[in-house]
Write a structure and sequence with these properties.
The chain has 318 residues and is mainly α. 45% of the residues lie in helices and 5% in strands. It has 14 helices and 5 strands. The longest helix is centred in the N-terminal third of the chain and has 15 residues. It is globular.
Amino acid sequence: RLITALLGSEAYVSHTYNWRADQLRIASRIAPGQPGWLYGEWVKEAIRAGLPADELVRRLLTAEGYLWDNGAVGFYLRDLGMPLDHMSNLMRVFLGTRVECAQCHDHPSEPITQKDFYQLTAYTYGVANLRNASGYSNENVREWRELQARLKAMDAPAALRDSVSRTTSYLKRRTTDTAHRLVFPDTDAADPAARGTAAELHTLFGDEAPADESNRRKAFAEWLTSPRNPRFARNLANRLWRRVFGQGLVEPVDGLSPFDQLEQPALLDFLTRTLAGLRFDERAFLAVLLNTELYAAAAEAADAPEGTTPVLRGPVVR
């Protein structure tokens, strides 16, 4: 009963937000003139409403519009101008897969090439934060010209002009898809013939996700969160296990690999199936973990001796 009450409390929302905000790197300012609290409040409300984890991720990946109208666009504004790093970060957080090495060269320890990385990033590369050529939006800041005229007439100091500009700036910019396509770098050593050509859309593993310019991000989001994706549920189950027990079944948590040598492979498989069966309801999954005899067991403060297989035990002392 205590577990049920706590999982249904506002404290759970606050605690989960801190955990999620660390992964999403939510900051007070996420782009020039773009307040990060709007992004943070969107994430917090999604947690409060019990939005399933797969749906939360899909909404982040496909977010568009004005930040004040849809806080989820903060997911792209957080990495504005860094589309390659953005893909690396989201792959680590949502699939537990480190691909950043492949930004510059074929991955040294994973079957991921630089070509693979560019073809994956092509799904989200066209996202941009735009405003119209006149520098304001008639739709949202109808008085912008009047404000400019009044500031000029009163010979307003620079500090006041800057303040007005910052106040209205996030109303002007709209996050949306463009026709921009990612091209392979001129330094591509593995495939010189690809240099300067546009990267085709291609996933890393699991199902294919065919798309065109009109639905690139939607196709990518469906592929990433699909129950058939071998790493989405597995990554989340491992991260939630670590949240409860203090140590993941795979460490580091962004180190999922086809070459994993797990101590408890059957357990992780069971947890993955359980999470998918619960339709990615994180509260329900946490209730499963928190009601186990293992969670109720006493913790051992000492680490397992080096060279020995660690046994399942209660939560790590923190």
